[in-house]
Amino acid sequence: MFKRRVALLVAIAFLMTIIVPGFFSAPTKAVAASKNPIVFKIYWGDSNAEPVDVWKTPIGKKVEQITSVRLQFEFIVGSDEETKAGIMLASGDLPDLINAHNVVNKFIEAGALVPLDNYIAKYGKNIKKWYDAKALKKLKYPKDGHIYYLTPFREESDPLYSFAGFWLPIYVLKEIKWPVVRDIDTYFKIVKDAVKKHPTYNGKPTIGFTALTDSWRIYVLMQQPLRLEGYPNDGGWLIDEKTGVVKDSYTMPYAKTYYKILNQMWNEGLLDKEMFSQNYDQYLAKISSGRVVGFYDERWQIQSAIDSLEKQGLYDRIPIAMPVLKKGVKRDRYNVVTMGTGAGISITKKCKDPVAAFKFLDRMAGEDILKLINWGIQGQDYYVKNGKMYKNAKQIQNYMSPDYRKKQGIGGNIWFAFPRPPFDWTYSDKSGKISWDYSDQALEQRYKPYEKEVLKAYKIKSFKDLFSPTWNSPYGYGWDIKLPDDLQAIQNQADDLQRRYITKAIMAKPGEYDKIWNEYLNKMKKIPIKKVIDFRQKEIQRRLKEWN
């Protein structure tokens, strides 16, 4: 039901290790580019990622010089990852490598992927440096105990910003004297008052509250009641963080209460009338226009809208995330840190040389390449002084520009799919953090002037200071539990029913909401969702026992 974020790449032919000496040399030693680089096909099945060929960037070319490998990408068209996976498996037309993303279990169950266990033991010099025995244990597929991909360590948010929240624009917060909005009733009152005070912006009606509902991204609407109850994003499941007891959210009582509030706002004209028909780009365009007051989302999904507002100089229209909860809930779980077990790069059974492919993946976890893809090119993107890496003012300015990073090839979604340590870890030579974003210099320099003004108004050092402390989940992410096909079909049925009826209930005419909700509950009773709950319960208990 819920996505999670990114993975990547790559491979080589074993015979070429003879032709291209030095390819598998120590991680810190670069080799000259081959006149005939090895080309490997990779399918990028992550519909989150922007289809950018990083191999054509200056940093991508440097990677090719080091590895003598070039990737030939096939990106998913649209967002139906499951359908594409079915077509690939039915035809048997598989690339050398694959980022199967949310449907990796389909490829595992079909026997289409190469187990990596023996390769890790024999060739995983860099991988074993970052992934200890405990981390590798987490990545084993529960059914057969094999590892089929190496999930990059990931953090749900960096030190500067909350991962998610209910958002309000700066001009609204300033007008009401900078409150920390923690209560949902207060939040919607602020939205209503702002629309009343500012009914239009740039000649167009102000939008009180909108939601992202395009395809699978509708999960951000479905998870709002859970977030307000103080739960993390566990894929639409209520998981007790102490006992691991799993409950479904499809029929949770507060969902009825919350969506009824949205229904009332719909009938009052405070909800975006296009929110159930707009696509992702249209949703971002509305936020970028500066006329949206409120919405719930995860920062990574709206970052481009924030970038657009900054480019336009509309700083007072930039939204700030608030730790909104249901009245009576004491702490939020908007920020989580744990090692996820979602998909990474897999080697398919059709790969020309799986040994060479794995050696390449291990090479990509070398510290020289990690510096290259996260910091950039030395001399251009950073400099070294007394053994420490820094960025000067111009380099910081470039790094802060999404256009520059994209053109240069620094830190794109595709790089993040390689095996890698957490960004806040330190290189073995003590030169700096894995990513500049986590360096002391970044924490001092990354905030822009308008953000510093907001921080000063709230008397905080980081926007995360508005939220409860980041929570370290003992069971990982509930959303990355892989279901067998039969149970996935049951969950899909429940998800589809939920989406249809939540949409219908929010748009209901006055007086019809309860009838529609009761109809929804009656239909949900006919779906054997308990089978899915029991499976998830067993997996959560296994994780709690084995991981801790």
Secondary structural class: alpha/beta
| CATH-level-2 architecture of the largest domain | 3-Layer(aba) Sandwich
Shape: globular
CATH fold group of the largest domain: D-Maltodextrin-Binding Protein, domain 2
- Name of the CATH first level of the largest domain: Alpha Beta
Report the portion of residues in β strands. Answer: 5-15%
Pfam families: SBP_bac_1 (PF01547)
InterPro entries: SBP
Organism: Caldicellulosiruptor hydrothermalis (strain DSM 18901 / VKM B-2411 / 108)
Protein name: Extracellular solute-binding protein family 1
Short note summarizing the structure:
With 548 residues, this protein is of the alpha/beta class. It is built from 23 helices and 16 strands.
Summarize the structure in words.
Helices cover 40% and strands 11% of the residues. Helix 21 (485-506) packs antiparallel against helix 22 and helix 21 (485-506) crosses helix 23 (529-547). The chain has a four-stranded mixed beta sheet with strand order 2-1-3-13. The chain has a four-stranded mixed beta sheet with strand order 7-10-4-11, sandwiched between helices. A two-stranded antiparallel sheet has the order 5-6. Strand 5 (200-201) and strand 6 form a beta hairpin. It has 548 residues and is an alpha/beta fold. It folds into two domains: 38-155 and 340-382 and 392-440, Periplasmic binding protein-like II (D-Maltodextrin-Binding Protein, domain 2, 3-Layer(aba) Sandwich), CATH 3.40.190; 164-334 and 448-547, Periplasmic binding protein-like II (D-Maltodextrin-Binding Protein, domain 2). The chain contains 23 helices and 16 strands. Residues 1-33 have low confidence and may be disordered.
